[in-house]
Design brief:
SLH domain-containing protein; Invasin/intimin_cell_adhesion; 5 domains; Immunoglobulin-like; Big_2; flat
């Protein structure tokens, strides 16, 4: 079980255009668009979006070289040999070449699939905008020297406010341009980057939207609308993929050709101008203290809704206050609430609504205490409507009134309407206790609350518990605790109960000082006996088991249950499963050195049901015994725990697997035995003697009544037989009896040590062999570890085995 004990122990900041070119200012040019940014170009044939990753931009001035002897030449009517007539970007490349905006890497080679660097894009950008080269300014970036081919273009782009470096002194000219960066720069150049959130959300329909950086999302939305960028056939955008030279050419060609009307249309769609507004509600009548949410519907010149208009609210007339768009009525009177929408550069648009604030009506109960009632007896409650002076408003009709009732059965609500100034509600309750009643009404306030009392009805049921257990040691006593209830399970005051024993040779029962309780004192005869408890015509029977020593408690068949085994399964279902398998006792894990004492809430329900079913319950604890005194204290606490019904464990199963030194084990066992008494059943759960013969046997013999070795024979990943299991148990019975001479209760294996291989679960034949050996060699009983993990066949074999004591 050590393995199971171990299981118990385990109870962007994103910078805009990072590493790319940044537009710091859009500069409009005569007859041209402003600067361009790193957006994506048209896709190859059959695609929708910009160029494939790895595309490269136009070459720098002077990048052309003479064609080498035998080099490929351009086909007639095409600009470059590697851009044939059927190429998806041939028209744009030819157009830009004719304008002197792009050149090839050689006179005949354009390299359309090469990536676009930052330096190349700066060159392409300045050429496309026909900006005069800046040559009279100091060098800006340390990594762009005056002899670098793109130096004048980078200087020009920087001083025109189109691009910035990665830092104040670094430009990273060889860095690659990504698709989202191109979109961001172009949108800024066109002055359309600041679109509304709603436009952005409606325009971005790529499957990888979440991969677009926050700084670029609005720009990508604008560029998408202008058809400067598109998605791939799989509806992805691939925002961080680098652009290529063909893509950059197509992008700039589109940029230069985008109609100004389409840009204006985008601006209107992305940031529509509000022309009219409407306020909801159109008017309001409230009472003091009532709140009213307000909203504005804004429309553009075409009557289309404008999302999230900039609204400010104001109130006049000293009738209330505003918190954002929520008005709270404070004072009776009339006033006006005004909504103002003002967009940048536009005249304000206002709309007002008239508001009336009235004094609230008052609701009061006809009496604060409606008295005492029996279960299901009608409780009539009346609520009166009054004005602010306390005068009844007998003319009030159809005011919706809600009663909220809180009591022992929880909260309930009842609704009605007023008639002639009052509301009448009749209710009934079954749970005994005090009920508090409050009232609410539309535009009304409550003046106080009310209450009533439900007292128990007539006697109908008797619940009887045997405390601490239905298992009683010969010569000792247990208590019968009886509680009377009415038919609705309300507890009654103690009623006299008559107790009788079916066979007085097992013991006798006497009444305690409380007439409802009794004491059973067992004689020397062991076996089962029935005790009846009777009041009036109601009789309850309890079967008791009188035993003589600890071996009687754990004779027959038992089951070891981890915390999750008895916590996560319904108690009734679990106990019925045990009864069907003729299990006489169970072991519940309730304490470990690491986890402490746990499971009290579940024990409260489990113990009395198991005892009533004739199943003894042993408290299973795991003591590591590094500190034997602390473990002993925790063990004593668990064994002495008493449920609300007076139940306790029938005995202790101490799992001893660590610190097997005589001193540690003796200090633990001695402390526990001293606290629980000489006759308290104590079982030592130990390693098999056939596995580990060096154990503190003298300590075990001195303090424990029963030896319980854990014989888990199926510990290798291989087939086992009936004979293997029989032999393992047989050998252990012989050796352990030789070492201790104590009664032996055998713990056999039903769990699979190899959970990833179902074939290694102990078979029904193995379980049969182990149980037969334990029975043949006179073990007092046999328990399985753990029944809940056994295969169906294994559990059925365990259940079918007949153990005759």
């Amino acid at each position: 079980m050590k393995k199971l004990r171990r299981k118990l122990k385990r109870k962007i900041s994103l910078k805009a255009l990072t590493g790319a070119l940044v537009i710091s200012q859009a500069l409009p040019l005569a007859g041209q668009l402003g600067g361009i940014s790193v957006a994506q170009s048209a896709a190859a044939p059959g695609t929708q979006s910009g160029a494939a990753p790895g595309a490269q931009s136009a070459a720098a001035p002077g990048a052309q070289t003479a064609t080498a002897p035998g080099a490929q030449t351009a086909a007639p009517g095409t600009p470059f040999a590697d851009v044939p007539p059927g190429h998806w970007a041939v028209a744009e490349i030819e157009s830009l070449k004719k304008q002197g905006i792009i050149t090839g890497k050689t006179p005949t080679q354009f390299a359309p699939e090469d990536s676009v660097t930052r330096a190349e894009f700066a060159t392409l950008l300045v050429r496309s905008l026909k900006l005069p080269l800046v040559t009279d300014k100091p060098q800006v970036f340390q990594d762009v020297k005056p002899d670098f081919y793109a130096y004048p273009y980078i200087q020009t782009a920087y001083h025109n406010g189109l691009l910035t470096g990665e830092s104040a002194t670094s430009f990273n000219p060889d860095g690659k341009i990504t698709r989202q960066d191109m979109a961001a720069i172009i949108a800024r150049a066109l002055k359309v980057a600041d679109v509304s959130d709603s436009f952005m959300l409606s325009s971005l329909n790529f499957v990888d939207n979440n991969q677009i950086s926050g700084y670029a999302k609005k720009s990508v939305a604008a560029a998408t609308y202008l058809e400067l960028v598109k998605g791939y056939p799989d509806r992805s955008f691939k925002p961080v993929d680098p652009a290529n030279r063909a893509a950059a050419a197509v992008m700039i060609d589109r940029l230069l050709k985008v109609p100004p009307s389409k840009i204006e249309q985008l601006k209107e769609l992305a940031n529509p101008i509000v022309k009219t507004i409407e306020v909801t509600p159109s008017a309001a009548t409230l009472v003091i203290g009532e709140t009213q949410p307000l909203s504005v519907t804004a429309l553009d010149k075409n009557g289309h809704p404008v999302q999230n208009p900039p609204v400010t609210w104001s109130v006049s007339g000293d009738i209330g206050t505003l918190d954002g768009s929520v008005f709270t009525a404070r004072k009776a009177g009339t006033g006006r609430i005004t909504a103002t929408v003002q967009q940048k550069g536009q005249a304000p648009i206002t709309k007002s609504i008239e508001v009336t604030v009235e004094e609230p009506k008052h609701l009061s109960f006809s009496q604060p205490d409606y008295g005492t009632f029996k279960p299901m007896q009608p409780v009539a409650i009346t609520v009166h409507v009054k004005d602010e002076t306390g005068k009844p408003v007998v003319t009030d009709q159809n005011l919706k009134v809600t009663l909220i009732v809180n009591g022992p059965d929880g909260q309930s609500t009842l609704e009605t309407t007023t008639y002639n100034g009052q509301a009448n509600i009749t209710l009934n309750k079954t749970k005994a206790g005090t009920y508090a009643v409050t009232v609410t009404g539309h535009r009304a306030v409550a003046d106080g609350s009310a209450s009533f009392q439900i007292v128990p009805g007539d006697f109908a049921k008797l619940k009887v518990y045997a405390a601490p257990s239905t298992f009683v040691r010969a010569g000792s006593s247990i208590e019968f605790i009886s509680t009377a209830y009415d038919q609705w399970d309300n507890q009654l005051p103690p009623l006299p109960v008559k107790y009788q024993v079916s066979d007085q040779s097992f013991g006798r029962v006497t009444n305690a000082s409380n007439p409802a309780n009794g004491t059973f004192t067992a004689g020397s005869k062991k076996g089962t006996v029935t005790v009846t408890a009777q009041h009036g015509n109601v009789t309850v029977s309890k079967q008791l088991t009188v035993y003589k020593d600890a071996t009687d408690l754990v004779s027959g068949k038992g089951d070891w249950m981890m915390w999750r085994d008895w916590k996560n399964y319904p108690v009734k279902e679990t106990i019925q499963r045990l009864k069907d398998a003729q299990v006489t006792h169970v072991y519940l894990l309730v304490s470990t050195t690491i986890d402490g004492f746990f499971g009290q809430d579940s024990m409260d329900d489990f113990l009395h049901q198991a005892h009533d079913a004739g199943i003894a319950v042993m408290g299973w604890i795991y003591a590591a015994n590094k500190d034997p005194y602390k473990d002993a204290e925790q063990t004593i606490q668990a064994m002495n725990y008493t449920t609300p019904a007076g139940q306790r464990f029938d005995g202790l199963a101490a799992d001893l697997e660590e610190n097997l030194y005589a001193w540690h084990q003796e200090e633990f066992a001695k402390s526990v035995r001293s606290a629980l008494g000489d006759k308290y059943p104590m079982m030592a759960v130990i390693y098999p003697a056939t596995w580990r013969d060096k154990q503190p046997w003298d300590v075990y013999k001195k303090y424990y009544d029963i030896m319980a070795p854990m014989v888990y024979w199926h510990y290798k990943a291989k087939p086992y037989t009936y004979k293997d299991a029989y032999g393992a148990v047989e050998a252990e019975m012989i050796k352990l009896r030789e070492f201790t001479g104590k009664p032996i209760h055998m713990i056999g294996q039903s769990y699979n040590m190899f959970p990833n291989d179902w074939r290694q679960a102990p078979t029904w034949a193995e379980i049969q062999g182990a149980m037969k050996a334990a029975y043949d060699y006179k073990a007092v009983g046999y328990s399985t570890y753990r029944g809940r993990t056994a295969t169906t066949e294994g559990w059925n074999e365990f259940a079918a085995f007949k153990w005759e004591n």
